[in-house]
Amino acid sequence: MNKSLKKLDGERLLLGLAAPVLAVVTALVVTALVLLASGKDPFQAFSEMLDYGSKADSQVYILNKATTYYLAGLAVALGFRMNLFNIGVDGQYRMAAFFAAVVGAQLHLPGVLHVLVIVLVAMLVGAMWAGIAGALKVTRGVSEVISTIMLNAIATYLISYLLNPSRLANLDSSGNVATPLIPDSGHFFSFATKGGPLWGFLLVAVVAGVAFWWGLSRTRFGFDLRTAGGSDSAALASGVNVRRMVVTAMLISGAMAGLVGMPELLNNSYQYSLNFPAGVGFTGISVALLGRNNPIGVAVGALLWAFIERATGHLEMAGYDKEIAGVIQGVIVLAVVVAYELVRRYGLRRQQSRVGRELAAQAVQTQNQEVPA
Amino acid sequence: MRRVTKLAAVVLSGSLGIATLAACGSTSDSSSTTTSPSGSAGAGAAGGGVKVGMAYDIGGRGDQSFNDSAARGLDQAKQQLGVATKELSAGANETPADKTQRLKDLAEAGYSPIIAIGFSYADAVKTVAKEHPNTKFAIVDSVVDAPNVTSLVFTEEQSSYLAGVAAAAKSKTHKIGFIGGVNVPLINKFEAGFTAGVKATDPSATVTPQYLSQPPDFKGFTSPDLGKAAAQGMLDKGVDVVYAAAGSSGNGAIEAVAAKKAWAIGVDSDQYKQDALAKSRDAILTSAIKNVDVAVFDFIKSVKDGSAKTGTVTFDLKSGGVGYSKTNTAALDAATVAKIEKAKQDIIDGKVTPPTTVKQ
Hints:
The complex is a heterodimer of chains A (373) and B (360).
Chain A: H1 2-37, H2 42-53, H3 56-81, H4 89-106, H5 111-140, H6 144-162, E1 170-171, E2 177-178, E3 190-193, E4 196-199, H7 201-217, H8 220-230, H9 232-237, H10 242-260, H11 262-269, H12 280-290, H13 295-315, H14 324-370
Antiparallel strand pairs in A: 1-2, 3-4
Helix pairs in contact in A: 1-14, 2-13, 3-7, 3-10, 3-12, 3-13, 4-5, 4-6, 4-10, 4-12, 5-6, 5-10, 7-8, 12-13, 12-14, 13-14
Chain B: H1 2-13, H2 18-23, H3 32-45, E1 51-56, H4 66-81, E2 84-89, H5 96-108, E3 114-117, H6 122-131, E4 137-140, E5 149-154, H7 156-170, E6 175-182, H8 185-201, E7 206-213, H9 224-236, E8 241-245, H10 249-259, E9 263-268, E10 284-290, H11 292-304, E11 311-315, E12 322-324, H12 334-348
Parallel strand pairs in B: 1-2, 1-3, 3-4, 4-5, 5-11, 6-7, 6-8, 8-9, 9-10
Antiparallel strand pairs in B: 10-12
């Protein structure tokens, strides 16, 4: 019995790995076909990508970018676990980063405290912005998909209203509009490496990942959240306040989204300007899908995404079409969804046939035992 | 095996700097120390072989807007000066690191000059220019202060002021519309100059400004449907002259205006001569010209001749870097032209200084 359990686990692991591997291989094949169709040698392209993507400075770039994507992925995954589709991560992190930048520039606090205040402001703003969608859902029954999309647009307009030389920002000589710079005490540390500065916020992302895992799988709260995500009525029957769960999940997802802009703000730009990265929230959705809402899976997804962007960014330089990056990313997401479903069905069928076999064997055994009697 | 030979072939061909990157060095930077000096030396040596690297803003070549205008200058340089070119464009959701890397790639591959289009490259140019002091850089629409950077800026408020004079002279309803692509300081400059020109000519006239999108959403530069809808809304309210500084979105605005037999004012290039707008061109009163192509071409030429200016080069009415078009002679009567010419002279003489920012 013990032995068969072990075997089952090994098989589950294998099946779990099969899906993403299948997806990536499919994506490679499709991309190769697209490259062939455009008259280019796909193997050359892949080797260029691998060569360039594995350089020291590429690695640093990938880790820095993946830090941002990972936090975005976690924010989305948290909603998914609760069966909430938080499309609003995009607006939440931009609002959060903007207000954090504004507050951070006004403060003069000793180092650690300064950073802490900025990060807390960001999480608070992110949580509040997401909380609106949560409150609307439980009080008025508004689908969070609709409300978060709307809130994204509102965030865009609100920020561009405030990010104005006559309000909270300045016009600089280069023609950019930016909030004042956050003083040195509000900068996050980074590691000096051969490939350039590696953002220290990476550590925060790791902590966030561990907290995500621990909170969801090792606490009563996580259990309630997953139950409520699985089935409203079952959760209600077991005494979980589903409405409160919805609001809480939205708040936490928003707070996590608040962290998304922090690596860029505290490790690189130190201000919110017209150049502040946009659209990361949507990348987070892809990354969360890729990682199946699992903290380790999301990390792999974030790294893969950053790698593809880095490596394909260079392909244009080598004479390939830039759009190939979008093709690869799109195909991977599609392939992941299909592959997981295929592997799930395959696993289910194997399980069914094994159970069938064992039952049959048992039946034969009982029959054999019955014969002598 | 086949792959290896191909790789070797690329390394040998050597024209692409990337070959050097693939072949050696553990960071893409480490190879730069060898590539970049030889690259800039090679620029002067090989058959006048100037290698121009061009980094476009979002939209890239084919945006029917200022990226395209820059591309025209590059094409002209390719034809007339025989320079080699490499064009890279920005992706949708970029971080500053991507822009820096793009310029770095070009610099490490030995491209010089490297021309960056748009203010969003300012920080990237600043960083990469410092790392590659032997490479020449230019940035359009922004100012970067470094010894090897030439900043190519335009006084759009001056040409827009003239457009405002023309609009006020032709408007019968005294209601004039301004359509801006995206609400950024660069486009605010157009609005500020335009409004000042209108007010100076006809104090009773009102200017209704409308922006098609807010940053970081830049679709306002590339959505003719949005331009059309905005123009229609203005026309319905009695506006009879519309000035659109909105990239290809402006084409939609011009079409809507032409259908209503009102006046439209084009932007950047002489839109009266654009094939895509041939049907609507009778409605195009004039265009506020911004010669990005001339600026790009002249810069490349000056680098080739070894007489490149550094610092800020301003393209204004005086130098002919900005201006207005007179091709639609049926629309621009002598009295209107006289008014515009007078305003032009006033600006050149320094009697009038159009504002560059708007109160929002």
